Every structure is written in C-alpha cells, then in structure tokens.
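Render this sequence as a predicted structure.
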Amino acid sequence: MKIPTAFVGAVSFAALIGRAAAQEPLAIAVRDRTVITTLHAEGAQVYECKLDVGKSQSRVRALTWQLREPIATLMLDGKSIGRHYGGPSWELTDGSAVKGKVVASAPGATSNDIPSLELEVVDRRGNGVLSAATVVQRINTEGGVARGSCERVGDYRSAPYSADYVFLRNSG
C-alpha cells in the first residue's frame, strides 16, 4: 500500500500541530521544526530480566526489567501504515524509515506510562514520508511500564502501550 503524499499537508495539519504542542512536555519541546506527520502507535514494550548495572545499598546486584525493544503498529486514521521496532526505528509501507537516538526525556503522565521522548534521527532510508524527518517526538504515552518481580535472568515481559509519534523536519 502506497501512502498518499497528500496526507502530509492535508490531514488536519493545524489540528496535528495544536495537539502536539498541547501535549508536548517542555523538556522535549522542539523549536524551528515543521511537523511532517503524527502517527498513533499501539503495541508493547518488551522487557528482559537482567542484572541491574547499578548496585543496591546491600551491594548485591538486583534483577530488574530492562527494555529490550518496542513492537508496535503505526496508524493513521485507524489504518496500519507502518511499524515501530527496536533501534528505535519507524518504517512506513511507502518504504521510508528512520532510526533515532534519545536526546531528551520527560516523565509520563502516571507511573504506569513510559516517558515522553525527543529523538534525533541518526539514520534514514527510502524516499517516502519520513525521508526528511530530523526529529521524532513520542508524546501522549499510555502504559508500557513493566510491573511485577523479575526473578530469573532471561525472562521476558510485555507491557501494552500506546503513544503518538510526531515526525518533524528542519524549517526553512
């Protein structure tokens, strides 16, 4: 399925900008950028039980849930148009894809919500919708935090989550 290029500017552009700005925590606010698109993600954050790299007060290394990868479907107007996976990476059915690196973080709305993020695009491929993206924001997060005890190295746990991903390009 090819993504129509018309949705870049026509899909309620003003509403997308207003919604992103209203929900964007100050810690990840991006200036001098233009919104390319905002996509909704539904999926899971996958965690692995590992030894904590820090030391507890008793100097015994504890087991903790550590993020392994996200697995999510990217949607526009309720239709699947791509996927989000480890890297972190976002790939659309038009062949465009970007990989990001976290540069800022802000706490989620509740302790059950993963943080909002600002990510710098560090790699890209394809000539589609995401090809001009320079920044990705994760906002409006719900869920995604692993709960419960981590008792055996190598165990996995999935935590359902949703979020909106705002893809931006340099202005001008």
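Summary. The chain is about 10% helix and 50% strand. Residues 7-170 form one domain.
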